[in-house]
Amino acid sequence: MRLVPGTPDAVLSALTAVLDGTGTPFAPVPADPAAAERVRQAVAPDEPLESDDCAVILATSGSSGEPKGVMLSADALVASATATHDRLGGPGQWLLPMQPYFVGGLQVLTRSVIAGYAPVVLGESFSAAAEAMTGERRYTAMVPTQLARYLDRELEALRSFDAIVIGGASMSAELKARVRAEGVTAIPAYGMTETGSGCVYAGEPLNGTSVDFDDGRILIKGPTLFSGYRLRPELTAEVFRDGWFRTQDRGRLVDGRLQVVGRLDDVVISGGVNVTLTAVQARLLEHPGVADAVVLGVPDAEWGSRVVAFVVGQPGRDQLRDFVSEVLPRTWAPQQVVELTELPMLASGKVDRQRLAEGVR
Question: What parts of the sequence cross the membrane (predicted)?
């Protein structure tokens, strides 16, 4: 197993080779030294591969804990790319606006190889990159934060795509409404590195993927699943049961579509009361003075877990507590409010929850 630079050209070259059978398994490494070291620790490049069923090893983003090395086979990558094209209406050309050392970016390149089109890599201008595309069908993938920013200044370019796959985080109701109003075809996708990127589009599983539940926990089965965690057989055995991958997410079916409710660790006990953090966060996002928000449970000697709201905006703690209490129990209102100019983000486009939590402990 070899390390390759996490640049689009280097990853595309290595990926093309493993997909056609001429290359060896690889792990893409970001340029940032600290991030590169986390990848090396997760993928253990000097240790023999424990599975022949591995083409790429990706390090999870570690947004809420230690990064893990996720082994993906060539068959899983191809199955994901093929099912995506089937759902979107056929192969096309892809624009890459994200880093290819995360699964969302890697799969943009995989889809490009399968479709036979050279991917267009985002430069300084999104519009210029969109104009450079020559495929009959045009696709891209991004996180909600990118979509929201491009809606403000790149609307016509967004409208030119046949489909924009949105992953990495859930889309807010406000963002979904705005996308519909502006005539942009944005499709929310649910998935993760372990599922070979998005495996459920707009609540409906891709071809070959099945969804089930175990006491609210989302279970996934299908050909896009990873082969296991690098040198973590005990963890691999813990998350796989009878071919089903046991995610850390809670969900349910609503009108036959998957609705992700939150993570299993989104419920904390604060002062003896069970608090659903995602419900508090959703309520805060409804406040006109809050542009963005994340709610975490932070260890506290008095409360057990202290509910802390990190908000982009300046409504004030008391106002936000009252606003939350209008629709949720008063005991769910955040004990602490941290005002920020923006939420810290990982390169994957996810909020750096670990950094936020460490800043208030």
Answer: none
